[in-house]
User: Fold Glutamate-1-semialdehyde 2,1-aminomutase from Neotamlana sargassicola.
Amino acid sequence: MIYKRSSALFAEAEKVIPGGVNSPVRAFKGVGGTPIFVKEAKGAYLFDEDDNRLIDYINSWGPMILGHAFKPVVDAVVEKAQKGTSFGMPTEIETKIAELAVSMVPNIDKIRFVNSGTEACMSAVRLARGFTGKDKIIKFAGCYHGHSDSFLIQAGSGASTFGTPNSPGVTQGTAKDTLLANYNDIENVKAIIEANKNEIACIIIEPVAGNMGCIPPKEGFLQALRSVCDQNNILLIFDEVMTGFRLAKGGAQELFDIKADIVCFGKVIGGGLPVGAFAASHEIMDYLAPVGPVYQAGTLSGNPLAMAAGLAMLTELNNNGSIFDSINEKTEYLHRGITKVLNDNKVVHTINRVGSMISVHFDEAEVYDFNTAAKGNNDTFKKFFHGMLNEGVYIAPSAFETWFITDALTFEDIDFTINAVNKVAKSL
Ligand code: PLP
Assistant:
């Protein structure tokens, strides 16, 4: 494949945008080389500035579950745009999408729309703190909840249970209120709660982790979290930015039959426009301004174009529930195919999958938390990534990311992909 124009555009971008990108993972730092500039996309395919066609397994990091330029979404946005793009005043469509979301997701009464997953998680934590009157939060190592200060925390040294900033600019004062736990380790969570009695407002978790590859919760782990939260007056926040409206109509809450206290959304809920949301019971949500004391706001929140895109997307998913079966079947077919060719080529690997989220780790041990995910062979991953790209298949440019499957993929596309894995595996 030729990437002449992409490389030239990247060189231009680097002059005026830090690192040439507006979000770091796009820069290919994890795999080397220069990023590909997209010209347009349709269905399961990306077309880059050099006119290469790539089968897309990232799908804008999740939102494009029904493929790129999905007609009902595009039509809805175009129609709305002609009537004005932002008012900063209430519109009927905000209530319509709220009603639909509340009807699709178990256990929520009210929802507030924001502009990103980061905003959703940041606001959910503030709400949990305001509601419980407590300051500390527990998050899990390797889970990502956006780039707000409270989440940019790594494990502290030695025996300390509180974290330290993992980015300059995050203060020690903020870091001391974020406690780091190991994913899938309920004893670790209990010990942290014990050491911080009556100080923890909430536990925030990706119910299926998708930011260290795809990591399923172990049997009983989420249930145990629910119980310890109940026993200790701690709110359980499910960050369903990736899993919401993807793993099932009602997301991970429905899939695992667990009730979270606050649920965060992003990605699919905006149909590819900048949307996030957080939702909970009447009691918790009415703690938000203007009814309650916890402040949260946004000039472009509930933006009409974003709401039109989201409403078109959710309507499609709501009316055609078989999409979830279809996409799961496609992902299972991909999973089986990749497993076979990697085994045939004796490539050491582990594949994790939940529904239409899947990741390939180049290590044979079980991958169930951040430490086990970090053991994967990154050199093999880099070769795999570039080999797949050369074959016309775009996977995430980082070993720590999940592949997001779109229902726009055909079985022929998946066979093409499996064939590409077979070719690339011979060179690993
Ligand atoms: N939460 C999860 C689970 C995510 O995967 C992401 C982004 O990838 C976020 C929150 C932050 O969302 P955004 O990038 O829209 O701010």
